[in-house]
TrEMBL record:
Source organism per UniProt: Diabrotica balteata
A GO cellular component annotation in the UniProt record: membrane
Keywords (A to Z) from UniProt: Membrane, Transmembrane, Transmembrane helix
Record-annotated membrane-spanning stretches: 40-60, 66-83, 119-141, 153-172, 179-196, 202-217, 237-255
Protein name stated in the entry: DnaJ homolog subfamily C member 22
Bilayer disposition of the protein: Multi-pass membrane protein
Compartment(s) of residence: Membrane
SMART domains reported in the protein's UniProt record: DnaJ (SM00271)
């Protein structure tokens, strides 16, 4: 079958028209995707207003490192959150690769071989570096854990925390830099702790020198765009960083934190938690909550904290009474007699069965610990009462 010239022309025209329509549809689809992907200034301000102190507006604008720092410092101690009021439009243009913004950025790059000094960025690097270094130092247990003094080992992680804090601030936005020089300077200036015994002094020296080294030798322009990552990947990275950050704070509160009971004695939190699970508050939670409510109605909610502390038995006093079978009114001599009788009864040497010997050993240690707790408490109260009598 043969076509005439007119028929061939019609077929060619229709084919070209079909291709043009498909191309137009594809371009429209791509434009719609781009438009949907563009960030909105209005939405950025909405996220800033309702969750800016946790960095939600920065996460929306794909400034993940910036968002993490804002979250971990409660909005940059509030100042960073307020400062973002005027910066959000620029952040949106940056995220959307606005042609005018990119043109201005290119002009700055041509004028300056490296990013010029920024006072706000340098101060932020100093503050974050100091916070992270001090957090690592606080998280190190002061006392031995499992018979090991971890302080000499973990103390060497403080310079690393400082350098990483400086580095993460230096890599926000259109600037970047490698951390190696900052890490090296941190460890070099870490030696100042043997000359300045005040922690804040040598830590400040280390942070300042690390920040200055990064700003002088490592800082450069970010000339290539960041690689786009999926939402799940971004959330996974942020969750991992947040877990490490929370673990450091948890270590500080658990190992080094202290609470004060109604007698004015300081008890380490890890000991208070251990005793909490044997306290009346835990063993009879419903009744304890009712007692707290009744107490608050009569004495006011201001005194509720003391009631909670007493019921949680932070020193293990109530559990110690239960173990020895004595009461709060028992004298020291009565407690000692009961302790000696129980120690003889449950001494591990009297048990010949290997399977029962371990249980006897645990019971014996529980008795010794209960006696030690009650003896220390009685001794402290006698000294306090004696001092009160002498003062009067």
């Amino acid at each position: 079958m043969r076509y005439t010239d007119n028929e061939c022309g019609i077929v060619s025209y229709q084919a070209l028209r079909g291709i043009a329509n498909k191309l137009s549809s594809y371009l429209n689809m791509r434009n719609n995707e781009v438009n949907r992907a563009k960030k909105s200034v209005v939405w950025a301000y909405v996220w800033w207003f309702f969750g800016g102190i946790f960095g939600l507006h920065l996460f929306y604008l794909e400034r993940d490192a910036h968002a993490f720092l804002t979250w971990s410092t409660f909005g940059g101690y509030g100042l960073g959150w307020l400062a973002d009021i005027t910066k959000i439009p620029r952040y949106v243009r940056d995220c959307n690769d606005d042609p005018k913004f990119l043109g201005e950025l290119g002009e700055r790059m041509r004028r300056n071989r490296k990013p010029p000094f920024s006072t706000s960025r340098f101060i932020s690097a100093i503050m974050v570096g100091y916070l992270w270094g001090q957090l690592v130092m606080l998280a190190i247990p002061e006392d031995e854990v499992y018979g090991i003094n971890w302080n000499p080992y973990f103390h060497w992680l403080i310079p690393l925390g400082v350098a990483l804090g400086v580095w993460i601030v230096g890599n926000i936005g259109r600037e970047r830099g490698k951390p190696w020089i900052s890490i090296a300077v941190s460890y070099i200036t870490y030696s100042s702790r043997w000359y300045f015994f005040d922690d804040s002094t040598w830590l400040s020296i280390m942070v300042f020198c690390s920040g200055l080294a990064f700003d002088t030798f490592s800082k450069e322009w970010r000339r290539t765009p960041r690689k786009k990552r999926s939402f799940c990947t971004r959330m996974s990275v942020l969750f991992f960083c947040a877990a490490i950050y929370c673990a450091l704070w948890s270590s500080y509160f658990y190992f080094n934190g202290k609470i004060t009971d109604s007698n004015g004695d300081e008890i380490p939190i890890h000991e208070a938690l251990h005793h909490f699970f044997t306290s009346p508050w835990w063993t009879d939670l419903k009744q304890s909550l009712h007692d707290i409510y009744v107490y608050a109605q009569h004495h006011g909610w201001y005194e509720i904290w003391k009631q909670i502390i007493d019921l949680s038995d932070p020193q293990g006093e109530q559990n110690a009474y239960k173990v020895l079978g004595v009461g709060p009114t028992s004298s020291q001599s009565e407690i000692t007699l009961k302790w000696r009788a129980l120690s003889r009864e449950f001494h591990p040497d009297k048990v010949k069965d290997p399977e029962k010997q371990r249980a006897a050993q645990e019971r014996f240690m529980e008795i010794q610990q209960a006696y030690e707790i009650l003896s220390n408490i009685k001794s402290k109260r006698r000294r306090k009462n004696k001092k009160s009598v002498e003062d009067t």
